[in-house]
Amino acid sequence: MMSEIATYHDLKDASVFITGGGSGIGASLTEGFLRQGAKVAFVQRSDSSEFVEEMFDKTGNRPLFIKCDITDTAALQGAVEQAGAAHGPVTVLVNNAANDKRHSTLEVDEEFWDWSMAINLKAYFFAAQAVLPQMKQAGGGSIINFSSISYMMGNAGYPAYVTANSGINGMSRALAREFGPDRIRVNALAPGWVLTQKQKDLWVTPEGLAAHLDRQCLKDTLDPDDIVGGVLFLASKASRMMTGQAMVIDGGVVVTG
């Protein structure tokens, strides 16, 4: 399926930085950009050395893995600097890493709330802040912030996560306005229920999946590869006049506009 994705010639040799680029949707994004000929750096909390070699074997293009916990702002800023030093100024940032741990309101304490915001919202802001000087130096860039349709659906079961995803949408619009004069575009991308291995291991049940598919216009399940094409489009100059928007890839559950 990945081989059927369109080629964006302007992404060849582009300096791309992806958070959580070694697993789940992020791993598919890393592969997608590598197949475009981009220079990809990604951060992941767990060791991704084997994944790096797998990507090199599959694409002939070796990504730069930087071990980093994105809730450590100084480490995240340092990783962005390292990526820029290795590949040239970062011109594409994909804020992909997130954690949708299930919880109810009454069990949330201040520590959990702060942890959830640190992963799902704060890190996005500081990654965007960190790439700003590099994108200015390069004459422009594209920031893609992963949100979720959870806030559009008003889903229960993870209120802190839903709150953060709504915040990502607002932040993307605010940064699009601020960064626009420097030809830096900022868009949000809201996937539906993508069946990553983590989702299958922890939360997918036959009944739950059937109910969700019933809400979709398209009755196929979403896989990580289904998100790649939209991200490549937002990263490339094919979308050069698109900013401050939220793109939804969910099989037709929610509507925008």
Automatic annotation (TrEMBL):
Signal peptide limits: none
KW Oxidoreductase (keyword) present: yes
CDD domains: SDR_c
Pfam families: adh_short_C2
Gene3D superfamilies named in the record: NAD(P)-binding Rossmann-like Domain
GO molecular function per UniProt: oxidoreductase activity
SMART domains associated with the record: PKS_KR
Domain Ketoreductase positions: 14-193
Alphabetized UniProt keyword annotations: Oxidoreductase
Highest taxon, organism lineage: Bacteria
Family listed: Belongs to the short-chain dehydrogenases/reductases (SDR) family.
UniProt protein name: NAD(P)-dependent dehydrogenase, short-chain alcohol dehydrogenase family
Species the sequence originates in: Paracoccus seriniphilus
Upper classification of the organism: Bacteria, Pseudomonadati, Pseudomonadota, Alphaproteobacteria, Rhodobacterales
